[in-house]
Amino acid sequence: ASVSAVHPKNQKFLDTEELKPLASHLTIDINQLDNELNVVKHFIREKRTTMNTIKDLLTELAPVNDAFPATTSLLRGALCLPVSSTTCERSFSRMKLIKTYCRNSTGDERLSDLTVLAVERTFNIDLEETVDIFSTNHQNSRILLR
């Protein structure tokens, strides 16, 4: 219920009481958030009808981010939460495969990197551009990558 209160189409949109659990979870000062939300509601009153998502709201507040740090932190936190448990389950499933494959000899940092690669494997990387960036950043390397 707390996350739904940041959605522009919700009846309890930006209701402080509804947002308290999410704010405390994200360690956001509730008093500061309450003060900011009173101003934000008036700031976006006319534009609320054109907003369909939390991202639209965050985009609208981006130019005045410094004026509403608690509110923007709350919105970013809400956007980072998985919509369903499927996202989490897929990540854990991939992590289980990676952890088994690497035979538990993988350190935490490498495991984290491998998990990101496995979960986001549809991300297209231009290898030519990667090689060019590497070669310009490592000019003292003995291998010429072309």
UniProtKB/TrEMBL annotation:
- The domain of life for this entry's organism is Eukaryota
A molecular function annotated in GO for this UniProt entry is: protein dimerization activity
Domain HAT C-terminal dimerisation, first and last residues per copy: 45-121
The UniProt entry, under Pfam families, shows: Dimer_Tnp_hAT (PF05699)
What's the protein called, per UniProt?
A: HAT C-terminal dimerisation domain-containing protein
Lineage of the species this protein comes from:
Eukaryota, Metazoa, Spiralia, Gnathifera, Rotifera
